[in-house]
Design brief:
The protein is built from no helices and 37 strands. With about 450 residues, the protein is mostly beta strands. It has one domain. The strands form 3 sheets. The chain has a 22-stranded mixed beta sheet that branches. The protein has an 11-stranded parallel beta sheet with strand order 2-5-8-10-12-14-16-18-21-24-27, with no helix packed on it. The chain has a 4-stranded antiparallel beta sheet with strand order 32-31-34-35, with no helix packed on it. It is elongated and about 70 Å long.
């Protein structure tokens, strides 16, 4: 069936259900719209829209406005939002390919570091009254992604909710000119595979909880950002404010971050008790692989955070042993860091994909005792771990440099840095995804050999 209209395509004032069939819909405004709900269980849909691709919206009942997808093959090319369910978008199956606003390549450049929520100035993703929303999947209240496959390329956020987002399954490949996944209130990830190929910021919300799933994030600014709901908040390293509502919690899952800005960023606290997180952080000294205003309490899991030393932070002394190594000059991406026991037993190996001179390591294999530090096969020094937190230079001497602040380590900034890949390395603590190295910054001093 082919439907074509200058205004709307397939529209009902109540419920719209699609069970099967082949539909090709072209509309000048909204292509598929059901005021109470749109439910798709199967079929093949090809949608071209001058505004919204699939939309459910009503002014009559607060709990209406559902879009639910449980099957089918859906291709959407929309000038506005790909899918908009005012009350809820619930995806439990199907194969989706969504282009919103012409795709991320048409997104305007981010020119100011103060335009985003990382410094606590509130949510900036709301559209002005005269602009067209160009998000991939959007809801005013909640988005639930539990199964299915989707490829989304959008000018604005790939997945957006003014309330909450829950990801528990499915495969999600996201490219965006803004946030890959943005929830104004809270974001929960418990399963699924999410691969952010391009974004300004990867995951953003006030409270983010990661308990499962497999994620890879490439962001020109922050990889994971817990912003603040207090517009008067002015936090970050070097300031006294700590947002009580901003919290990043990691209890499981696998996450590999490639960030030009901060890798993991919270205007409040970070808590980690499980999972695997590897951060290929910024190569410029205006950002840090870790950036938190309060504390970073870690009691389990594996954390690796590599980047430039200018704004580096370690974790807060807690239940796990942590190690921060700082090198006198920048090292090329691919330069391997290895740690062994004195008898040669390897306890850690990682190859950052971008240039770095600081790395923070927290793994269950690090305990009290004596160790050897290698750059590839070349031994650099020996060192001893006797306390919960150890900070050394690459020659084994104690390291206490930095810009100060309330937290161990150094201060912070926010200028976007270079891009890069996300592969933890051949001998890494855990396998990762192949990445693409970024060309070295010609203004930095690189050492291709030893730490």
């Amino acid at each position: 069936m082919v439907l074509q209209g200058d205004t709307n395509g397939l529209v009902t004032k109540d419920k719209l259900k699609i069970l099967s069939g082949t539909l090709q819909i072209t509309a000048g405004n909204n292509a598929v719209r059901g005021n109470e709900c749109v439910a798709i269980y199967g079929g093949t849909l090809t949608i071209t829209a001058g505004n919204g691709g699939i939309k459910s919206h009503t002014d009559n009942e607060a709990t209406c406005g559902f879009v639910t997808i449980r099957g089918g093959s859906i291709t959407i090319n929309a000038s506005g939002d790909g899918i908009h369910g005012e009350y809820m978008v619930d995806i439990q199956g199907g194969e989706l390919n969504i282009t919103a606003g012409g795709g991320s390549a048409l997104a305007p450049a981010h020119t100011s570091d103060f335009e985003h929520g990382g410094w606590g100035f509130g949510n900036t993703t709301e559209e002005t009254t005269d602009s067209q929303s160009q998000k991939g999947i959007k809801s005013d209240y909640q988005v639930i992604l539990s199964d299915g496959e989707a490829v989304i390329d959008s000018v604005d956020d790939a997945v957006h909710s003014n309330g909450t987002i829950t990801i528990s399954g499915g495969e999600w490949t996201l490219s965006t000119g803004d946030d890959a996944v943005h929830a104004d209130s809270s974001l929960t990830v418990s399963g699924g595979v999410y691969n952010v190929l391009k974004s300004y910021e990867g995951l953003e919300s006030i409270a983010i909880t990661i308990s499962g799933g497999e994620g890879s994030i490439t962001a020109s600014d922050d990889g994971v950002n817990c912003n603040s709901d207090d517009e008067s908040f002015f936090g970050g390293r070097g300031f006294d404010s700590v947002s009580a509502s901003s919290l990043l919690t990691i209890t499981g899952g696998t996450l590999v971050v490639n960030a030009g800005g901060d890798g993991l960023d919270s205007n409040g606290n970070i808590v980690m008790s499980g999972g695997y997180v590897a951060v290929n952080g910024p190569s410029d000294n205006g950002n840090g692989a870790l950036d938190y205003a309060g504390t970073f309490q870690i009691s389990g899991g594996t954390l690796i955070a590599a980047g430039a030393s200018g704004m580096a932070q370690s974790v807060t002394p807690s239940d796990c042993y942590s190690l921060m190594i700082t090198c006198p000059s920048m090292l090329s991406g691919g330069t391997q860091v290895r740690i062994t026991k004195e008898d040669g037993t390897e306890v850690f190996s990682f190859s950052p994909t971008k240039s770095y001179n600081n790395i923070v390591i927290c793994t269950p294999d690090l305990t009290t005792g004596s160790y050897l530090l290698y750059s590839g096969t070349q031994q650099q020094c020996s060192f001893t771990i006797s306390e919960a937190q150890t900070s050394i230079s690459s020659d084994g001497s104690d390291y206490s440099g930095g810009m100060g602040g309330r937290n161990p380590g150094m201060g912070g900034g926010m200028n976007p840095g270079a891009g890069g890949g996300m592969n933890p390395g051949e001998d890494g603590a855990r396998p990762g995804r192949d990445g693409e190295d970024t060309a070295p910054d010609q203004n930095q001093d690189y050492n291709d050999g030893a730490l």
